[in-house]
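User: tokens in, sequence out, please.
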């Protein structure tokens, strides 16, 4: 068996955070959902069945939660910071697809949200 690609995914992580351009967004906050698709070679984990041979979901979540807790005006900046931190903390991550959605953006309409998607490559690997 040959492994072509492998990913670790976390779906719809939920946060209440204080990102936004408007002052009210930074005071009241908003609900956010974030999904990750992290490029990572799982070959060792497939063979060993040991958690130390893969990414620890809980540690990935902790990094994401720390960055979500740091207010920014733009979701682009938040998602970019998350990618930067993940690459720093977990050098074996080769890529990160980050989808961040603000659930109730102040844009004068009823919607399920507005957000940003980044596909980042770890140029240090």
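Assistant: Sequence out:
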């Amino acid at each position: 068996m040959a492994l072509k690609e492998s990913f670790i995914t976390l779906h719809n992580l939920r946060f209440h955070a204080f990102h936004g351009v408007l002052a009210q967004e930074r005071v009241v906050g908003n609900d956010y959902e974030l999904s990750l698709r992290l490029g990572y070679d799982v070959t060792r984990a497939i063979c060993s069945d040991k958690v130390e041979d893969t990414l620890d979901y809980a540690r990935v979540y902790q990094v994401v939660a720390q960055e979500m807790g740091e207010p920014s005006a733009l979701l682009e900046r938040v998602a970019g910071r998350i990618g930067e931190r993940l690459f720093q903390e977990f050098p074996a991550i080769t890529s990160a697809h980050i989808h961040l959605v603000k659930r109730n953006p102040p844009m004068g309409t009823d919607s399920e949200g507005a957000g940003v998607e980044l596909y980042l490559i770890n140029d240090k690997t």
